[in-house]
Design brief:
Number of helices: 15
CATH architecture of the largest domain: Alpha-Beta Complex
Oligomer: single chain
Structural class: alpha/beta
Strand content: 5-15%
């Protein structure tokens, strides 16, 4: 299998080179009517034009004399006594000795036919294209603005072995539906983030201080509602420390505190700790992992230099999160029992712009 192509410019370069080779197969090609008109004009320079046989008798006599032809040595006066029909016959005879000028009007096919009758060896572009399609099952040329797949198919028809990287990806994804393809940029960023996390003393200790297991799924039934629950910590140390890795735009304390609330991480921590413990108690199995006793968030920023911070929530925050998840489970159980999942109000509601917007507007008017 040839190397897969991802760069469009590589395809364009290959197409342009193949087009040039194709054109050589058929010699110079006529692509415009104007080219044929110029060719005919050039041909007409070596051809005597036919003269008109219309007009008055005196005009006909003048044309005959001008062409140096006087029948039977007759004078102009004697020619004047000849019937007009005889004079026209003389002109027709003169014209029969001449090729005449080729017309430059008509379709491209008409112009080509005249040029060929005059001996020109020409090939029209559409004629070459027809021949080419019969031979290669593809057009003579293809626009470089065509899609990658169109250019690849055209090149393959001309003997190239072109494979697009996007097709390789699509085939791989079809055969590996559970996996994710990363770009080189994403791959590099992930490894840089990994290096940054392991270079942070607290984060490194949380991850490597004790052995553990990654992404262990734990299932349990909530003792208050009976609801089936699940959690899957990023890292569960054998000593009971749960570690969760979070990517963020800002890993600073104030910013990450806001992130805790926005994404409800403060609910996740007690839910995971309580739930993993109940999973051990209810199943009677721990898989070599102790009951969770604490939860560490490792926050790593998504852009260089990939700054890292490690956080443990205080008891008040853990308690607040515990109240929220227990309330959520009670709501879930009630909705499940009644098969009623309320959304927002079904009535018209009054809404206003936020207070901060009014303050901002007022300040702008000062």
């Amino acid at each position: 299998m040839s190397e897969a192509i991802d760069n469009r410019e590589v395809l364009v370069e290959m197409v342009e080179k193949q087009i040039a080779e194709n054109m050589k197969l058929y010699g110079p090609l006529i692509t415009k009517s104007a080219e044929l008109v110029d060719l005919i004009h050039e041909t007409n320079k070596d051809r005597l034009p036919r003269i008109s046989a219309s007009g008055k008798k005196g005009d006909l006599i003048s044309l005959i004399i001008k062409e140096g032809y006087q029948p039977a040595g007759k004078t102009e006066a004697e020619m004047a006594e000849m019937p007009t029909s005889e004079l026209k016959a003389i002109i027709e005879f003169i014209n029969s000795q001449r090729e005449g000028h080729l017309s430059v009007s008509g379709s491209m096919e008409d112009l080509a036919a005249r040029a060929r009758e005059a001996g020109a060896k020409i090939t029209l572009l559409f004629e070459a294209d027809k021949t080419h399609r019969e031979r290669f099952k593809a057009p003579l040329k293809i626009g470089v603005s065509s899609s990658r797949h169109e250019m690849a198919a055209w090149l393959n028809a001309h003997g190239h072995k072109v494979t697009l990287w996007s097709d390789v990806q699509a085939e791989w994804l079809a055969n590996n539906a559970s996996r994710t393809v990363l770009t080189q940029e994403e791959w590099d960023a992930l490894h840089s983030m990994k290096s940054a996390v392991l270079a942070h003393p607290a984060a490194r200790t949380a991850l490597t201080g004790k052995p553990g297991r990654a992404e262990v799924s734990a299932y349990w039934h909530d003792p208050e509602t009976g609801a089936l629950c699940r959690c899957r910590p990023d890292w569960w140390r054998e000593d009971g420390l749960l570690v969760d890795l979070k990517t963020t735009d800002d890993a600073g304390p104030d910013a990450f505190a806001r992130t805790l609330i926005k994404w409800r991480y403060h609910v996740q921590a007690p839910y995971y700790m309580d739930g993993a413990g109940m999973a051990i108690n209810q199943s009677g199995r721990n898989g070599g992992l102790a009951h969770p006793h604490n939860f560490v968030f490792i926050a790593v920023e998504k852009k260089p230099p990939y700054a890292v911070a490690a956080y443990v929530m205080n008891a008040e925050s853990v308690g607040d999160g515990r109240e929220e998840y227990q309330r959520d489970l009670a709501t879930y159980a009630e909705c499940s029992e009644n098969d009623n999942w309320p959304g927002y109000s079904a009535d018209f509601q009054m809404i206003s712009v936020p207070e901060w917007h009014l303050i901002k507007k007022a300040r702008a008017q000062v």
